[in-house]
């Protein structure tokens, strides 16, 4: 893909060691390191899981989970933003040979990633701010955000320094066709995606201002 291969890290890994301990102590939580800061996300609620299942369907239907590419949930991507940085996108489209690009800590070189997708939880600001810069710096070609807080879909393309050259926001009622650079023509029904992802009563995200 478009990014240069990541250098394999050397030396002690204090942040990664701490992140792995946090995962052991908090089953179900997602622990990432972005900008040399450890970020901990709570376990996903049912609507989050529903959205991911529904989102996989159009990718699978056009054959993206096949010989040339794979559609995977919660696979780590090694980031260039810090010597121990990595993220765990909710959903990714990767080259079929992604396992040849293992860097460290079950995270893979961004060169293998065609698309990453996040469904927001209580840490929605991370998905809409920190990860925008992190994924763009990693030269991930397409970043999609299912924004449950504001009930819209973000599609970011054309990575540049610290961001994306194109950031389009889509509302319910729209059909969004993703760039065919991911390997096939994928069209998302924004209303259906957001309806599946709608927050459940009592979920942590409902308490956000």
Provide a descriptive summary of the structure in words:
With 209 residues, the chain is an alpha+beta fold. Helix content is 24%, strand content 32%. The strands form 4 sheets. The protein has a 6-stranded mixed β-sheet with strand order 3-6-9-10-11-12. It is globular.
Quick take:
The chain has 4 helices and 14 strands. With 209 residues, the protein is of the alpha+beta class.
Topology at a glance:
Elements (H helix, E strand, L loop, with lengths): L13 H12 L4 E5 L2 E5 L4 H16 L7 E5 L2 E3 L7 E2 L3 E5 L6 E3 L2 E2 L4 E7 L4 H14 L4 E6 L4 E9 L2 E8 L4 E3 L9 E3 H8 L12
Helix pairs in contact: 2-4
For the structure shown, list the relevant keywords:
alpha+beta, four-stranded mixed sheet
> Considering DSSP H and I runs of 4 or more, what fraction of the residues is helical?
10-25%
Count of DSSP strands: 14
How much beta, percentage-wise? 25-35%
> What structural class do you assign from the helix and strand content?
alpha+beta
Give the integer mean of the pLDDT values.
89
Total of helices: 4
Strand order of the largest sheet: 3-6-9-10-11-12
End-to-end distance: 39 Å
Ranges where pLDDT stays below 50 over 5 or more residues in a row are: 201-209
Specify the biggest β-sheet. 6 strands, mixed
Return the string of H and E elements.
Answer: HEEHEEEEEEEHEEEEEH
Shape, please? globular
Radius of gyration: 16 Å
